[in-house]
Design goal:
Length: 182
Amino acid sequence: MVKHWQFLRSFLRSPKTMGSVMPSSRYLVSALLSGINWQKTDVIVELGAGTGAVTESIVKQHSADTLFICFEFDQELHQRLVKRFPETEMAYDAFKLLASLKKHNKTQSNYIVSSLPFANFSKTDQQVLLEQIKEALAADGQLILYQYSKQLEPLLAKHFQKLDRRYVWQNIPPAYVYHCSN
């Protein structure tokens, strides 16, 4: 319980950096990561790691051979993640996704898992980021993300041929989970 109060105090100090007042629930994390073929994943990227609820599950499940790059823009949260997951490659700016992959001599990722609050971004930033994500995905790759509304769905449909959507009622607040591929 103390951890939740510490998180809430941190959130209230910088509300523009977060998309939710609560960390992702185990139900949301499970819905996000279901369907990932961990044994055949060379590269996985997480965008908007926040408090690390999704990060922790990825760290537990990915193989030792998998490159895992985790992005978190908020400096305080980023530093906490660096300390909590010292074996994970941490980066700041999701808009530098392609440059981060290139730094590791990679051009594509099998999975990009996003907790970014797209509703907080301008339409231009949403478009730019989705174009970069699409370029960074392997031909059989997937973008997996959650949102609290269906506002982003038309833009996702513009970029991806296949959208699988489910609603996770058990999360606070409930969320839409999208698995997007071509």
